[in-house]
Design brief:
Helix content: 10-25%
Strand order of the largest sheet: 2-1-3
Low-confidence stretches: none
Largest sheet: 3 strands, antiparallel
Number of helices: 2
Number of strands: 3
Shape: globular
Structural class: alpha+beta
Distance between the termini: 27 Å
Length: 74
């Protein structure tokens, strides 16, 4: 199951689990759409392709909440 990280690792933008617009690599490094575009859809950490992160809504989100651990280091 995906962690559904709450923020962009590059700029710190909020990325709610139930909203589209987050991108991730196979290691779940997570970026907003603007940063993914600026990175040419390549993860700066592992070099993997950044893909659209699926959303998690309703009971799925209630029963399996998103992570609250922020990754942006500022």
């Amino acid at each position: 199951m995906l962690e559904m990280r709450p923020d962009c690792e590059r700029c710190g933008a909020d990325l709610p689990a139930d909203d589209p617009g987050a991108f991730l690599c196979s290691f779940e490094c997570t970026f907003c759409a603007a940063c993914a575009d600026a990175l040419d859809d390549r993860c700066p950490n592992c070099g993997g392709e950044l893909m659209d992160r699926p959303t998690r809504t309703g009971k799925a989100l209630v029963n399996n909440p998103a992570s609250t651990e922020r990754r942006f280091k500022g």
